[in-house]
């Protein structure tokens, strides 16, 4: 009898032990998916001082380390671990085996998801005024709409919808499960940007650590390959696409391409470089800096301004506004840098880098830049005489009066005194006068002139000065901020790398051979429809600059 009881206890112990090992094995396998993709989205099941357990939207529960160093946000604001409750929807980014970033949004009852609410995440494929098409995490294309009540948030701040780019990763929130009108859109920060384009020889593949080693590494800088690193070890995701001449290469076959040259589009993932797209080089490399003349979507063929024809495909690395975009984001008349491979007359594009193109990121924006004489200023209204408007990167003049509107939210900057003025000062002081009046003649007063940045007919920012500049000497320049500084000798100045000037003659952006210095002493600097200072410029910012040689006039941070 005792032996029978003992046997039962042993069997029970072995059964419990089996269940424990099964649970441990299941947990390890279950965690593999988010560790491979680098992110997870879903609902909090449990959270404690060390870990968080998340149920993915698609199913499956994952227990992941949540260190004290993780960046935690709720509604775009910094939060504490205690603020996150079971039931809240979260998006988390993972590095190694730990969460480095996690965000959520509050509800009326924390931890309770209101029936009928919904959320979608994805990458923007198309922006058409109030319509947006996103590619979801599972590969579906879905169409949604904005309304005047739609709120946009980036880095915890309210921003205009015009800051959206094709290629941005976004999270859409809705007030009702049956609506396709977005109530709130959260825009991912700069981690979405392509930081570098590398070319190198594939020397080794470590499938266990998901890393590759490249030799003879070159970086694409201002349309040229520059030697930057002898060798480079870099991580990749087994889910990231790998292509050769348009054909998908399974990640477990990558090792068979050792010795081949590859192109790698790189993102900065919490301080660590990571491959976002990898293309194995085909035959011989040819490069062009040209305008797209025409696109044949049926044959997937580009005709360039030099009459060269280049095929493109799903594997082509296409970078636009520093974001990785799909082939349908290509447009005729766009300027770009093209890296093609092939023999004889057949060329296939491995890399297409589209230069920043306009003041507006998309047709959702209605921003304009004017320069004109301030003919009349009254409360809330300005009349411009013979205004000039930036049209296709050139000043175009008009022989009439243009009426614009301003309010208390307008930034009005006196460039002569180097200070902000109030809207009341703007219309009560002598920035616009009746030049024929005795008061104007006795005091030698003349109308001032302004550089004006608008949203439609509403003035967002205006910089005013006494004299009109010669517009013939001015040019439009795009590039990336390398640095911004203030010195006792030169004053405020920025250095732009990868600078390009617009050529009206060639109707395209012409790359400069070296970095460009621009004075900011008499310039208005604009970001997200607001006036900022040179100190707000960050290395890596894309800028659109109107300048008179060294003297900057208008700087728009893109």
Protein architecture, described:
By secondary structure, the protein is mainly beta. The chain folds into 6 domains: 1-30; 33-104, Beta Barrel (OB fold (Dihydrolipoamide Acetyltransferase, E2P)); 118-191, Copper binding periplasmic protein CusF (OB fold (Dihydrolipoamide Acetyltransferase, E2P)); 194-357, OB fold (Dihydrolipoamide Acetyltransferase, E2P); 367-459, no CATH class; 471-557, Beta Barrel (OB fold (Dihydrolipoamide Acetyltransferase, E2P)). The strands form 6 sheets. Strands 29, 30, 31, 32, 33, 34, 35 and 36 form an 8-stranded mixed sheet that branches. A hairpin with a 4-residue loop joins strand 38 and strand 39 (508-511). The chain starts with a helix and ends with a strand.
List the helices and strands and how they pair.
Elements: H1 2-30, H2 32-37, E1 39-47, E2 51-56, E3 61-65, E4 71-74, E5 77-78, E6 89-95, E7 98-104, E8 118-128, E9 131-136, E10 141-145, E11 151-154, E12 157-158, E13 169-174, E14 184-187, E15 194-206, E16 211-221, E17 224-236, E18 242-244, E19 247-248, E20 261-269, E21 272-280, E22 284-296, E23 301-304, E24 309-311, E25 317-320, E26 323-325, E27 335-342, E28 348-354, E29 367-378, E30 381-391, E31 394-397, E32 401-405, E33 411-414, E34 419-421, H3 423-428, H4 438-442, E35 449-455, E36 458-465, E37 475-487, E38 491-503, E39 508-511, E40 516-519, E41 524-527, E42 530-532, E43 542-548, E44 551-557
Parallel strand pairs: 4-7, 11-14, 17-21, 18-21, 25-28, 33-36, 41-44
Antiparallel strand pairs: 1-2, 1-6, 2-3, 4-5, 6-7, 8-9, 8-13, 9-10, 11-12, 13-14, 15-16, 15-20, 16-17, 18-19, 20-21, 22-23, 22-27, 23-24, 25-26, 27-28, 29-30, 29-35, 30-31, 30-32, 33-34, 35-36, 37-38, 37-43, 38-39, 38-40, 41-42, 43-44
